[in-house]
Each structure stands twice: as structure tokens, then as C-alpha cells.
Design a protein that fits this description.
This protein has 259 residues and is an alpha+beta fold. The chain has seven helices and 17 strands. Helix 1 crosses helix 2.
Length: 259
């Protein structure tokens, strides 16, 4: 039985298409423009196969700054550029004790590496000739089977015939993103981002960047009093310490380069 606070992805897509038409948003992919920003920022979370629900109200804090989501009707709210994420120097009133101190390093320490995750994928039985590669120039990395519905994705190792099946994103939302990042880390002509140590500014490629890592960096930047932005093909996070980038490089196979 589906509870009223849950929704499956097909229902979400239809609702986004309705909003796109009703408000003349002219978005080519309405769910990408309306739903996924909420999902990435943590306002909505995955609960089981292709089902989602609104995240419980939560507040994180550090150095007298409180960042919170899904906590409404607070007079001290400061609206950030991110949907339903607020920042304040006053703790909002909560009926439940969902308040915690945020420590990015402690969280990132629990992350396995992209390489470890990709290497848990099952060997695929598909033929290489049946694949269309996301990186058409190199014909390696992430690909999908021609005419598969829904798209069945695979990972092809560079300079190898080894092909792995990538689990469906509805069961594990970040696996395909991690596969993209892992491919960029082992492709000598690519990287996952750059870091300017002097300015403490981290830029990461937005396409295929893992949702959970994005959330950590978003909170870290906001709690340091900065506003992350999207510039061209990158997410830019000011106020990121080198120790955090070191952990990211562990996870992403040293593919964050010095800027």
C-alpha cells in the first residue's frame, strides 16, 4: 500500500509535466527542472524502488549558523537560492529534536570509493556492439543498450572488454553518478573538478556528480557563510577546506586537480 506522503517517479513526472504546461515553463524535461533540484538538495529523498517522500524537518548548525530544510513559518528565515533551504543565525523552532552539528569530514569518512562501488557491479552478458556510449568520442565508460526501455546502463573499462551492469538508479540513485565519476578519474584526459587552495573554492563537474557528495558540499559551503553557484558545466562551492578535498580525492580517485 502506498502512503499518501509517498509518490512514485511516474506520478512525479506526470505532475511536473502538468506544472510545465500550466505555467508555460517551456522545459524540455520538466522532471529534471522541477523535481531533481529538490532531490539533489535533500528536500525530497528516495525511500525504496522509485518511490520518494518529503524529507523530515532537519537543522544542521556550526559556528552560530543554522541551515535547515522543510522547516516553515519561521520569522527569522533567510531564503537561500536553493529550494526550501534556509539559513539563519537563530535556531528555528522545531516540534522534534532533529538538530545536529555538521561535520563534513566525519560524514565523508564513511563513504566508500567510487572504484570500490563500481567493482561490485555484476559482469554483463551484453555485446559491446549493442551499446551506445555517453562519451561517443572514446567509446568507453558509461553506455546504454540500444533500444532498451527503460535504458539499461553498463560500464565499459577503458582499454578492456570488461563490461559491468550498472544497477537501476531507482534502487540506488547514485550508482550511475559514481560510474561517471569513476570513468573520469581513470580517463587520463578528464577529471572531476578543480580546487583553488588559496581561495578555498572547489569546482566540480555537475553532470553525473553524486547526489550525496553534492549535499555535503552544499551544507559545508552554506555553513561557512557562502553561496554555492552553478557556472556553465560546474557546481562551484566556496569555503571548502583542503581537508574536505582530500577526502573527496580519496572517494574520486584523486581526480580533483589543483586549479
Amino acid at each position: 500500500m502506498v502512503h499518501k506522503e509517498q509518490a512514485n517517479y511516474e506520478s512525479i513526472k506526470r505532475f511536473c509535466e502538468y506544472l510545465n504546461k500550466q505555467y508555460s515553463l517551456n522545459e524540455e524535461h520538466p522532471a529534471w527542472a522541477i523535481f531533481f533540484p529538490l532531490f539533489y538538495a535533500g528536500n525530497i529523498d528516495s525511500i525504496r524502488s522509485l518511490y520518494f517522500r518529503v524529507t523530515e524537518p532537519v537543522v544542521v548548525h556550526r559556528k552560530g549558523i543554522y541551515v535547515y530544510t522543510n522547516v516553515f513559518d519561521q520569522p527569522q528565515d533567510v531564503v537561500t537560492p536553493f529550494p526550501f533551504i534556509y539559513s539563519s543565525k537563530v535556531m528555528p523552532e522545531l516540534t522534534e529534536n532533529n538538530v545536529c552539528e555538521f561535520n563534513a569530514i566525519s560524514i565523508l569518512n564513511y563513504f566508500p570509493t567510487a572504484a570500490e562501488i563500481v567493482n561490485t557491479f555484476q559482469l554483463s552478458l551484453v555485446e559491446r556492439s549493442s551499446l551506445l556510449f555517453v562519451d561517443r568520442k572514446s567509446n568507453q565508460g558509461v553506455a546504454y543498450i540500444k533500444d532498451s526501455t527503460p535504458k539499461h546502463y553498463c560500464f565499459v573499462f577503458p582499454n578492456s572488454n570488461k563490461i559491468l551492469d550498472i544497477p537501476h538508479w531507482g534502487n540506488q540513485p547514485d550508482v550511475r553518478n559514481l560510474a561517471y565519476c569513476y570513468y573520469r578519474s581513470i580517463n587520463e584526459n578528464d577529471n572531476n573538478g578543480t580546487y583553488k587552495l588559496k581561495d578555498k573554492v572547489l569546482s566540480v563537474k555537475h553532470f553525473g556528480f553524486p547526489i550525496m557528495l553534492y549535499r555535503v558540499l552544499l551544507l559545508e559551503s552554506l555553513l561557512e557563510g557562502y553561496t554555492p553557484v552553478k557556472e556553465n558545466d560546474y557546481y562551484v562551492f566556496p569555503g571548502i577546506n583542503a581537508s574536505i578535498v582530500k577526502q573527496l580525492n580519496r572517494i574520486l580517485s584523486n581526480s580533483i586537480q589543483n586549479g
